[in-house]
C-alpha cells in the first residue's frame, strides 16, 4: 500500500524534472543564439528564466509543506533535503544561462572572432548531458549514473582551461579583440559553473540514496 | 519556559556564526595576501577552507537532526530551511575565497599592474561588511538590517563593472598585461559573487522572519 508521503515525494520529483527541462531548454537556446548569431533568441531566454524562478519558489514551498505535514525521517527526509538543494542548483543554472545571454549579446555586437566557439559548443553539449543525466539519476535513484556525472565535470573543466588559454593568446596578439575574447571567456566560465551545479546534484543523489556524504573529498564506492 | 527546540535552534545559529567567522577570516586573508604580495598567505587559505567544509557538513547534519527529531512547523521550520540555505551560501563564499587565492597566486607571478587593486580592496571591504551584516541580521532576526545588505550589493556590482572596464582598457593598451588583467577581472568577479551570496542570506533572513519570499523580484516592505 502506498503511503501519502510517497505520492508527495513523487510530485516533488516531477516538479524537479519539469524545472530541469526548463534549464535544459534555456541552455540549448543561449547556445543556439550564440552559434547562429541571433539576438532575439538571447532575449527569449528571459521568458524561460521566469518559468525557472516560478519553479524555484514552487518547489521550496512544496518541500516546506511536506516537511510540516508529514514530519518525515531517514530516507524520506534525505530526499526532501536533496530536493531543496537540487532546486537551488537548478535555479543557479538558470542564472548562468541568463549570464551567458548577456555576454553573448555583447559578443554579437563586436567584430566576430570564432576560434573558441567550437570548444564552447562542446562545453554546452557536455553541460546539457550533465543536467539531464544528473536529474535522471535523481529520479531513478541511480548512484552509478550519478558517479558518471562527477567524471564528466573533468571534461568540461579541461575545455574551459583550453578556451581561457586560447582566448588570452588571441587577445595578446589582437588588442582589438580584447572585449570579444573576454565575452567568450566569461561564457566558458558560466558553462563550467553549470557543470559544477550538475556535479552538486549528482552528489546530492548519492547522499539521498545511500546516506553517504561525498562532498569535500568524501570517498564513494 | 524554553522548549527543547529553542536550544537546538540557538545551537544552529551559533554554528552559522562560527562558519561565517571562518568565511570572513578567509576573505580578509586572501585580500591581505593580494595587497601585500604574500604567496604564503594565499596558501594558508586552504586551512581555513577545511574548517569551512567541516562546518558545512556539520550544519547540514544538525539541521537534519532537528528536522527528524522535532518535526518543526511554521517559523521554526522556516528558520531551519534558512539555515540550510545560508549554510550553502557560506560554503560557496569559502569557495570564492579559494578561487581568489588561485587567481591571486597567478597574479603575483606576473609583471605587477596596480591600477585595479584599490577598487578590489574596496570590493573586499564591502563584501566583508555584507557577510558580517547578513549574519548579524540573521542571528538577531533583524529585517531592516537585512534590507540594507540588499542595497550594499549595488555598490559592489558597480565597482566590479569599473574594474572590468579599467582592466580591459589596460589590456588593450598593454598586451603584455593581458594575463594579469584577466587575473584581476576574475578576482573582481569572485568578490561580486561573494556579495551575491550575502544577498541570498539577507533574503533568507527576511523569509525566515516574515515568511515573505523576496527572491526573484518579490517586493518587501
Automatic annotation (TrEMBL), chains A, B:
Report the function annotation for this chain: Plays a role in the regulation of phosphate uptake.
Q: Name one Pfam family in it.
A: PhoU
The record's similarity note reads: Belongs to the PhoU family.
Q: Which domain of life is it from?
A: Bacteria
Which NCBIfam families does this UniProt record tie to the protein?
Answer: phoU_full (TIGR02135)
Main location class: cytoplasm
Q: Which InterPro entries does this entry report, sorted A to Z? A: PhoU (IPR028366), PhoU-like_sf (IPR038078), PhoU_dom (IPR026022)
Protein name per its UniProtKB record: Phosphate-specific transport system accessory protein PhoU
**Keyword Transport appears in the UniProt entry:** yes
Q: Which keywords fit this entry according to its UniProt record?
A: Cytoplasm, Phosphate transport, Transport
| Single GO BP term | intracellular phosphate ion homeostasis
Sorted alphabetically, the Gene Ontology cellular component annotations on this record are:
cytoplasm
Annotated PhoU domain ranges read: 16-101, 120-205
Its annotated compartments are: Cytoplasm
Q: Which gene encodes it?
A: phoU
Complex formation: Homodimer.
Amino acid at each position: 500500500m502506498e503511503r501519502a508521503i510517497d505520492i508527495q515525494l513523487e510530485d516533488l520529483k516531477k516538479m524537479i524534472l519539469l524545472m530541469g527541462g526548463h534549464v535544459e531548454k534555456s541552455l540549448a537556446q543561449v547556445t543556439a543564439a550564440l552559434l547562429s548569431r541571433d539576438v532575439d533568441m538571447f532575449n527569449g531566454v528571459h521568458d524561460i528564466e521566469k518559468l525557472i524562478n516560478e519553479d524555484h519558489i514552487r518547489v521550496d514551498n512544496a518541500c516546506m509543506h511536506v516537511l510540516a505535514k508529514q514530519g518525515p525521517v531517514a530516507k524520506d527526509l534525505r530526499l526532501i533535503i536533496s530536493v531543496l538543494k537540487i532546486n537551488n542548483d537548478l535555479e543557479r543554472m538558470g542564472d548562468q544561462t541568463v549570464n551567458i545571454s548577456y555576454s553573448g549579446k555583447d559578443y554579437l555586437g563586436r567584430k566576430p572572432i570564432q576560434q573558441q566557439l567550437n570548444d564552447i559548443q562542446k562545453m554546452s553539449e557536455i553541460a546539457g548531458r550533465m543536467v539531464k543525466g544528473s536529474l535522471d539519476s535523481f529520479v531513478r535513484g541511480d548512484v552509478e549514473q550519478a558517479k558518471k556525472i562527477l567524471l564528466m565535470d573533468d571534461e568540461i573543466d579541461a575545455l574551459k582551461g583550453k578556451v581561457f588559454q586560447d582566448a588570452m593568446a588571441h587577445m595578446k596578439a589582437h588588442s582589438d579583440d580584447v572585449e570579444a575574447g573576454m565575452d567568450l571567456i566569461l561564457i566558458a566560465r558560466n558553462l563550467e559553473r553549470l557543470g559544477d551545479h550538475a556535479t552538486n546534484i549528482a552528489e546530492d543523489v548519492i547522499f539521498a540514496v545511500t546516506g553517504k556524504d561525498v562532498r569535500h573529498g568524501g570517498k564513494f564506492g
